[in-house]
Amino acid sequence: MTAYKFLTADGLGLFSRFPWPLPHGGPGAWVDSEVEPCRAGIHACRARDLPYWAAPELYEIELDGPIDELELKIVAPRGRLLRRVDAWDASAVDDYGRMCIARAAELVAAAPSVLGDWAPTGVPPPESARLGYIVARMAEELGGVAAHLEERRRQSAWLVERLSLA
Amino acid sequence: MPESHRPNGHGFTCQEVVAIASEYLEGAMAPEQMTAFEVHLNFCDGCLRFIDQMRETTALAHSLSDDEIPAELKSELLAVFRDLRRE
Predict the structure, then answer these.
(1) Annotated domain spans of chain A
(2) B42–A148: do the CB atoms touch at under 8 Å?
């Protein structure tokens, strides 16, 4: 199964700080792990999970073995990085930020009495995960948890289209 | 541990993250809570730095042996910990 994995700019796991074998002209080396969801195992995400884990580098990852499908992530005993998603570059990060800011402005315009204090100002910083979260929280202020999740779906769809992901 | 009634994607607050940080580092957190916790870490630089510092401090503390702690300092630390428990 092919999924996605965000890493730090140094190629480390976001929370494990594991130095992933990066693909160079071919897939990176296989990494094996015992599986204990959230504690051990090869963690990756589906396209719909992308906005929750947005980080500097994005890779396609091939997973092998039984796969646990969890909320917001998947876990397998084995995985290797197939390729860097080059489309997730500074320009895409910037565009994503601008999309989030535009969406925030839309939400404020729809309910200025509720979200007036949330009005975005200035140029969006390159902090995709935070911007996505803030906009989802703004939507939640208006429409509850369902609106939060719908906003996240909207962000996933944007990323899939912008990055030409399957 | 605060019970999150929200969906994972909503995440925890910074206060909640600090309150349950040691459970996260000890691997004592339920999987669904850990997901919410890490969603928060991914968008909150301050909390991520806090967790990294705690992890580093724990690793350094584990690398010490009893012999490396001066007796006087050890008794002072134990007294502080005892007082903390009483509070």
Answers:
(1) 2-84, 90-163
(2) no
